[in-house]
Specification:
Layout (H helix, E strand, L loop, with lengths): L2 H12 L5 H4 L12 E7 L2 H9 L4 E9 L8 H4 L7 E8 L6 H10 L8 E2 L2 E2 L5 E5 L2 H17 L9 E4 L3 E3 L7 H4 L4 H17 L9
Parallel strand pairs: 6-7
Antiparallel strand pairs: 1-3, 1-6, 2-3, 2-8, 4-5
Helix pairs in contact: 3-8, 5-6, 5-8
Length: 212
C-alpha cells in the first residue's frame, strides 16, 4: 500500500471517519449556467484539490478517479493499479474569471509532470500525470502548455503527461474531500501536499482568492 493510501485509510478508521456517508462516493456538483468543467490527474488528489480550490473563479473541486476501465472504483481498488484509473480532480470554474489556459499553468506548476507514474513518495499508475480534454481546443491548449513547459527547462526531464479525451469521472469517497483543510497538521499533508500547493500559489500569484 502506498504512503498516502495507508495514511488515508488509517485516519479514516482511527479518527472515526468511517461512517457510511464518509465511505460513500461524494456527490458530483451540477455545473451552473456558464460554468465549465476541467479534469486533471497529478499525483495524490489531496494537494491538487486544495491547490485548484485556491484559484479565483473556481467554485468547487472534487477529488476522484478517471482514466481507467473499472466502474465506480474504490480508493483501495484504484491503489492496486488494476483499475486503470488515476487519482484525479474535477474543477468547476467560471471561464469569464479564470481561463482553461490559466488552469493548465497551475496544473503543471503543482506537480512534477516529468516523473513517470510517480509523485514524490507515491508510485504507481494511479499517480500518473494526465490532462483530460473535452474539446479539440482544450487538447490544443494542453499540447501547447506542454511545449511551453518543456521549453522553459523548469524541470530536469521532459513532460510525460498523458493527453487523453475525457470519458468519465468517479468521485472519491467522502473522507477524501477537502482532505488538506481537514487534516492540516497531518505529516504527509505538511511534507508532501502543501509544498505542491505552495508551488501553484507562486505560479498563480494574482489569481488567488482573497483570504487564502
Amino acid at each position: 500500500m502506498k504512503l498516502s493510501q495507508f495514511i488515508a485509510l488509517s485516519l479514516s478508521l482511527l479518527a472515526g471517519y468511517a461512517s457510511a456517508q464518509d465511505m460513500a462516493p461524494a456527490k458530483l456538483p451540477t455545473p451552473k449556467p456558464g460554468e465549465a468543467v476541467a479534469t486533471f490527474a497529478g499525483g495524490c488528489f489531496w494537494a491538487q484539490e486544495e491547490a485548484f480550490d485556491q484559484l479565483k473563479g473556481v467554485r468547487e473541486v472534487i477529488s476522484g478517479y478517471a482514466g481507467g476501465h473499472t466502474k465506480n472504483p474504490t480508493y483501495r481498488e484504484v491503489g492496486t493499479d488494476e483499475t486503470g484509473h488515476a487519482e484525479a480532480v474535477q474543477v468547476y470554474y467560471d471561464p469569464k474569471v479564470i481561463s482553461y489556459d490559466d488552469l493548465l499553468v497551475g496544473f503543471f506548476a503543482a506537480h512534477d509532470p516529468t516523473t513517470l507514474n510517480r509523485q514524490g513518495p507515491d508510485q504507481g499508475r494511479d499517480y500518473r500525470s494526465v490532462a483530460f480534454y473535452r474539446t479539440p481546443a482544450e487538447k490544443a491548449a494542453i499540447e501547447a502548455a506542454i511545449k511551453t513547459v518543456n521549453a522553459s527547462k523548469h524541470y530536469n526531464g521532459t513532460v510525460v503527461t498523458e493527453v487523453v479525451p475525457f470519458t468519465v469521472f468517479y468521485p472519491a469517497e467522502g473522507y477524501h474531500q477537502n482532505y488538506c483543510k481537514l487534516h492540516p497538521e497531518q505529516p504527509y499533508i505538511q511534507s508532501v501536499s502543501m509544498p505542491k500547493v505552495a508551488k501553484m500559489r507562486k505560479a498563480m500569484a494574482g489569481k488567488l482568492k482573497s483570504g487564502v
